[in-house]
Write a structure and sequence with these properties.
Elements (H helix, E strand, L loop, with lengths): L3 E8 L2 E8 L7 E7 L10 H10 L3 E5 L14 E2 L1 H15 L5 E11 L1 H12 L5 E5 L15 H12 L6 E3 L21 H11 L11 E2 L1 E2 L7 H4 L7 E5 L10 H10 L4 E5 L13 H17 L2
Parallel strand pairs: 3-4, 3-6, 5-9, 6-7, 7-11, 11-12
Antiparallel strand pairs: 1-2, 2-4, 8-10
Helix pairs in contact: 2-3
Length: about 300
């Protein structure tokens, strides 16, 4: 029995497609808006988190990022963090028009690269009432201090209406997302743990995942950086990090420093298994992560 509706909405000239899960209880429900991390699609474990949240009484809007999976957009397999962050904003606009949703009870959820994006969106947009950042890829090192908030101000204005699709100064790709042979076939994500997870979960029937990606970092006045945005987050934050995270871009020291700069209320949880441990389903780590996040949502929206 299918427990979701297929939905679509527009963002940055593309049609973003996904699923809307509705809880069994009547009345306007709080909603969790979800998208996966680098190149992955909605059926690569994120749908399992969505099912847990739905069973706990939440509506869930889960969608593929622009250029990936069932969503449209060109060039295919291109990641632009500004564009993906705007996707979250457009997802909020879309879901707020649904009479079955509590417009004031919106949580945004991200994993890895998307976890950094929801921190930025949560700092810029006033609509989220909670943010869940799972093993966030905030960076390999901290940016220079932004004591007067001027860098964040520029980043906020850029996300809202700046030019984010021109003059890329860094365009890694097209590359394989993962590879078992870094010497002869280098990939964007290099740890062998990334290869094992993507090949296992992306290789399953119907995921729509392809082992190809281009990452675009446009030459904006201020780079897209969750550590710059973190001190300006004004919504309850649940951050989950892996102390032994093998992904250089998800340096746990950087994540802890970003978390420390976030105003209260906030909650930090550490979980074993590296960057991909909590994306294995079924597993004890998935149960630990999903139950911890559900408890956070229930307390936040009680």
């Amino acid at each position: 029995m299918r427990v979701f509706e297929t939905v679509e909405f527009t963002s940055e000239g593309a049609m973003l497609r996904g699923r809307l899960y509705r809880p069994a209880r009547p009345g306007a429900a709080p909603v969790v808006i979800m998208a996966h991390g680098t190149s992955a699609t909605i059926t690569m474990t994120t749908d399992r988190y969505a099912e847990v949240f739905r069973d706990a009484g939440f509506a869930v809007l889960l969608y593929d990022h622009r250029n990936f999976g069932n969503s449209s957009g060109e060039p295919r397999h291109e990641i632009n963090p500004w564009v993906q962050a705007r996707g979250y904003c457009d997802a909020m606009t879309f879901i707020q028009s649904d009479s079955g949703i509590d417009r004031k009870a919106i949580a945004i959820w991200g994993d890895s690269y998307s976890a950094a994006e929801v921190i930025v969106v949560g700092a810029v947009d006033e609509r989220p009432a909670a943010v869940i950042a799972q093993v966030p890829a905030i960076g390999s090192q901290l940016p220079r201090p932004d004591h007067d908030g001027s860098s964040f101000s520029v980043m906020r204005d850029t996300l809202r209406d700046g030019v984010v699709d021109a003059r890329p100064y860094d365009r890694p790709g097209p590359l394989p997302v993962v590879s078992a042979d870094q010497l002869n076939t280098p990939s964007l994500l290099k740890p062998i743990q990334a290869f094992r997870w993507f090949i296992e979960y992306g290789g399953r029937y119907g995921t729509g995942w392809e082992n190809q990606v281009t990452r675009v970092l446009p030459a904006t006045p201020c780079p897209f950086n969750a550590a710059i945005a973190a001190p300006h987050l004004r919504h309850p934050l649940c951050m989950m990090i892996a102390p032994e995270d093998e992904m250089p871009g998800a340096n746990p020291t950087v994540s802890r420093a970003a978390f420390a700069s976030v105003p209260e209320p906030k909650e930090l949880f550490e979980i074993d298994g590296g960057h991909f441990g909590l994306l294995h389903h079924p597993s004890a780590l998935f149960e630990q992560a999903s139950s911890t996040q559900t408890d956070f949502l229930l307390r936040t929206f009680s």
